[in-house]
Amino acid sequence: MVKPGIVTGHLSGLKSVMTGVLVGLGIVQKVGIQELVAAMLQQVRDGFEKEPLENDDLIRIGQKALASIAEGSK
Fold first, then answer.
1. Which of 28, 60, 63, 67 is 20 to 30 Å from the Cα of 74, by its Cα?
2. C-alpha distances in angstroms, 61 versus 17, 24, 52, 70?
3. Predicted model pTM
């Protein structure tokens, strides 16, 4: 199970403004769609480190997984 905040991708217009306001006020956190997907795939492949995965976990795991993919493609 995961508990992401706002999942960001390609936002425009009012959604982008509202996301900026909510994140800026500290009401919600955001995680990029790439980080979320990378984190979920890594956790399914290697096993979940804890449940639920919070936003900070998703960002950390996702960034590490994306860095690993980038290193492997060089």
1. 60
2. 27, 23, 13, 14
3. 0.71
**Residues near 52 by beta carbon (within 8 Å), at least 6 away in sequence:** 1, 2, 3
- Cβ(24)–Cβ(10) under 8 Å? no
CA distance 71 to 74: 6
Residue indicated by tokens 């804890």: 50
> Which sequence spans correspond to the domains of the chain?
2-72
41: tokens are 């795939």
Indicate the pLDDT class of residue 66, thresholds 50, 70 and 90.
Answer: very high
